[in-house]
């Protein structure tokens, strides 16, 4: 068993090398045992969905057999986006769930997102599953635990049409380009928007585990080329992209520019705060300082927290927040919804704002203070050295705070430091052997100076 596939938020690896049918069988057993430990009962029932990857059905069959060994029943909800699997946890009488997916990773990967009751597992809980698996034998008598199929997808669509059905009556609707990236969310979102009466240009909406058109990650700019082209050719109003399993969103505006995840979060915060002043909003450490500043001005209370969708969800519940989001395009809406990351629901709420309020997204985005920032910068660093490297970066910043102009340091996730002209971040990735950096400043010159200085220091620290 490759212990490295058990990550902070999920389980993920290359099919046939790190994960195979035997692995899935043992994972099913381990999860069944984990359920018994936590629920203090024999057996149980879980809902299991899977994405379009070529290995997902094999993974499902072996996982189902492992669960049956532990007398855990399986509700097979079929090929669905991850948010539909989460939806099943709120709409069905189940003890937990498993989504078989590797999200936006290349086609040779697969993996699992695990839930106990309505809460996704992360951190120590995922490591507990690994501990159980390591002690299991590869054989077991498959018991007669039941497997039943359920059409949760139709119920999910019905839920969305009931909530947003009133939009059918609006005449001046925005025209949409929708890129599913050949993942599992495109055809679902496309059908809902069509049913609501929108003009929708669908791109790559059919699930295909080979991902033949582009990598299914709409937060990477090169993957938005087709959306930009179609928006220009068809004179459409907005472009929406889903990632491979439908829990992250990318947005392209009419002029071809991108509305980044933290800007989208600010738009929703502003919109919801109009009706619910003082709402708490959780945002990850990679978000722009402009977002935190403007949320306060527009009636919301922002809370900076660690990066990671499971961590954000947990913090959201702890704080009683109705909204949360990450720079990476995970948006969690608890207002009129269940508070998990659902790119289809997020796209419906976005289009609702455009339809009902007639917001010009380009003008809205251009009204924000002008800043210059970098995308995520990744610097290789072995997992065994990451903690020491972050400690030394913190010490370096403390020694050089006057030269850099540091006025505030936040250590909630790595080191995020603020200056009177911008900010910087150095944190450990939870999924790769890298340090993640990001910078923002009020001018390009200051941005480049800050970026070059900190990157140079980080590289020296790692090399030492």
Return the structural class.
alpha/beta
Question: What's the total count of β strands?
Answer: 22
Number of helices: 15
What fraction of residues sit in β-strands?
15-25%
CATH topology (fold) name of the largest domain:
Alpha-D-Glucose-1,6-Bisphosphate, Chain A, domain 3
**What does the overall shape look like?**
globular
Structural description of this entry:
The structure is a single chain. The protein has about 475 residues and is of the alpha/beta class. The protein folds into three domains: about 5-150, Alpha-D-Glucose-1,6-Bisphosphate, Chain A, domain 3; about 155-365, Alpha-D-Glucose-1,6-Bisphosphate, Chain A, domain 3, CATH 3.40.120; about 370-464, TATA-Binding Protein, CATH 3.30.310. It has helices at about 20-40, 55-70, 80-90, 125-135, 150-165, 185-195, 225-235, 260-275, 290-295, 310-320, 345-355, 360-365, 385-400, 400-405, 445-464; strands at about 10-15, 45-50, 70-80, 95-100, 110-115, 120, 145-150, 175-180, 200-205, 240, 250-255, 260, 280-285, 300-305, 325, 330-335, 370-375, 375-380, 405-410, 415-420, 420-430, 435-440. The strands form four sheets. Strands 1, 2, 3, 4, 5, 6 and 7 form a seven-stranded mixed β-sheet that branches. Strands 17, 18, 19, 20, 21 and 22 form a six-stranded antiparallel β-sheet that branches. Strands 9-8-10-11-12 form a five-stranded mixed β-sheet, with helices on both faces. The longest helix is centred in the C-terminal third of the chain and has 20 residues, at about 445-464. The radius of gyration is 22 Å and the shape is globular. The model has no long low-confidence stretch (mean pLDDT about 95).
